[in-house]
Every structure is written in C-alpha cells, then in structure tokens.
Amino acid sequence: MSLLSADGVTRIYGSGCEACRDRTGDAAGTNQCPACGSVVACADVDLDLQPREVLGIVGESGSGKSSLAELLALEPNQDGHVHGSVEYANHPGNLLDVDYETRHALRNGHISLVHQHIRDGLDLDFSGGGNVAEKLLASGWRNYEDVRERVASLFEETEIPVERMDDPTHTYSGGMQRRVQIARALAINPEIVVLDEPTTGLDVSVQARVLDMFRRIQREEDVAAIVVSHDLGVVRLLADRTLVMRHGRVIESGLTDRVLEDPHHEYTQTLINSAI
Ligand SMILES: Nc1ncnc2c1ncn2[C@@H]1O[C@H](COP(=O)(O)OP(=O)(O)OP(=O)(O)O)[C@@H](O)[C@H]1O
C-alpha cells in the first residue's frame, strides 16, 4: 500500500475558467490560460510514494514543482484554487481538505517540508538549536534537558558542530543553515520529508556533502522522501523514481535510471542534454 498518493491534484492561481485545463499544459506550451489569464501551476497530477522510497520531481523553473510540493507537505500557504485528493496511509480522508488543527498535527508529527528558501524555513535571528527546538516544542516536547539532548543529537546526525548550537543562525554558513533545516525537519521523526530544491544557494562541493548526508539519514531512518529539483544531478543521486514536470503537468515518470538513461519524452531528452 502507498504511504502517500495523489490523484488529480490541480492548483490554479487566479479566477480560473472552463478553458484553463484544455488550453494549458505541455501540448499548449504554457501554464497560463489564454482565456482568463490564470496560471495553472499544476494539473491532474497523480503520484504515489511507497514507504522508504525517494521520489524525485524534476522540471524547469515555473513548471509547478513547489506549488505541488506545498500541497503534499500540508503547507499553510493556501493560495490558488486546489482540486484533487491526497491520501496518506496514517490518516483517513483527503489531506487537501483537513482543518487547521489536523494540518498542524500532521506537519508536527508526520510530514515535514524543507523549504527552498532558507528564510521561509528558519528564523535566522534565533540560534540554530532554537530553530530545531521550536519544532520539538510544537510537537509536544516540554522537558528542557530532553529537548537540548535531542537537538544535540540531531546536530551530530546532520554533521553540524554541536558547539555552534547556541549561535544565531545568521552566523552559520549556507551549508550549515541547510543542515539546520534538515535537522528541524527530522526532529519529529516524520514518515515523509519533502525537500524543495535542497541545493539552492549552495556551492557545488557543499551541495554534494549535504545530499550525501541526507541520503545516509534517509536510509538509516527508513524515512520516505519527495525531492523537488530543477537539477537532474540531485534526483540522480537521491531518487528511486522520478516524475518530470513541464507547464504544470507530469510528462514522464519511471525509475530514475530509466528516465535518465532512456528518456521517452522529447523534453526530458532536452533537459538531460542541456545538463551535460
Ligand atoms: N502565489 C502565487 N500566485 C500566482 N502565481 C503563482 C504563485 N506561486 C507560483 N505561481 C506561478 O505558478 C507557476 C508555478 O510556480 P512554482 O513555484 O510552483 O514552480 P517551480 O517549478 O517550483 O519553480 P521554481 O523552481 O522557480 O520555484 C509559475 O508560473 C509561478 O509564477
């Protein structure tokens, strides 16, 4: 049984009209409806995530990856009209319809998002440890010593110097800040982590170390992940299966090796060729 499955997930920014779906997408060559001007960020997306699996979502900027990832990760950003359903094995009903309290509980106990932009995920004036502790407190941890011990062990696990725990996060390097985000996401022992562009703003050598660290923890802890990236190298390293998005639609999917070695869609071939 799938851990998470999406059926027909659609997100439209703007008023929307009857022509929106037909006049956008891969064949239309745009995600903007020519009739009403709305942006069809993603439409008719079906996917499933198995326990312990890493699913990659790849596509160029604007293809709809973040809009989809936010829905899967129950982010509070509710912009746009949303249709379809997301089923999660450990909670009945459609995740897209849950109320505020349920959303909060799921985000603090089951499904974590690592934001593309560090500022969206961390308070840079807080200490690094404080950013991780905040997530533990939100999920019900209360004892000060227990929280500090857990934060220190998460720092070790994500390879951040524990002695920097009380320093303000803005004094950390970009790589360390990304690690704090990952530590924060893992703090609640989630079943699913959604990583949105995990390499944004990092040097190539730092990127590789952060991705290796995440892959190690993902395997050790048997956590499932959805990794969103414009970078084929990221999905090649992390993802078992990959979906390719363009103009808000999934245009190709399969085992990552197959998609990268034997792409069926012309656009995927172009993506791969332009990455070489
Ligand atoms: N709040 C919003 N209001 C209106 N349009 C939006 C909003 N958020 C995103 N969009 C539009 O939706 C489309 C998909 O954006 P999205 O950020 O999901 O793509 P992406 O593939 O994640 O791109 P990137 O990698 O650059 O973040 C884009 O055309 C974008 O301009």
Structure report:
The protein has 276 residues and is an alpha/beta fold. The protein has a domain of 65 residues. It is 36% helix and 24% strand. It contains ten helices and ten strands. Strands 6-7-8-3-9-10 form a six-stranded mixed sheet, with helices on both faces. A four-stranded antiparallel sheet has the order 2-1-4-5, with helices on one face. Helix 4 packs across helix 5, helix 4 runs parallel beside helix 6 and helix 6 packs parallel to helix 7. The radius of gyration is 19 Å and the shape is globular. 43% of the residues are buried. The model has no long low-confidence stretch (mean pLDDT 95). Bound molecules: adenosine-5'-triphosphate. The site of adenosine-5'-triphosphate has 14 residues, from strand 2 and helix 1.
Question: Keyphrases for this structure?
Answer:
ABC transporter ATP-binding protein, binds adenosine-5'-triphosphate, PhnK, nucleotide-binding, four-stranded antiparallel β-sheet, six-stranded mixed β-sheet, alpha/beta, 276 residues, ATP binding, globular
Layout of SSEs?
Elements: E1 4-13, E2 39-49, E3 54-58, H1 65-72, E4 81-88, E5 91-94, H2 100-107, E6 111-114, H3 118-121, H4 128-138, H5 144-157, H6 174-186, E7 192-196, H7 204-221, E8 224-229, H8 232-238, E9 241-246, E10 249-255, H9 256-261, H10 266-275
Parallel strand pairs: 3-8, 3-9, 6-7, 7-8
Antiparallel strand pairs: 1-2, 1-4, 4-5, 9-10
Helix pairs in contact: 4-5, 4-6, 5-6, 6-7
Bound molecules: adenosine-5'-triphosphate.
Adenosine-5'-triphosphate binds at residues 13, 31, 39, 41, 59, 61-67, 79, 230.
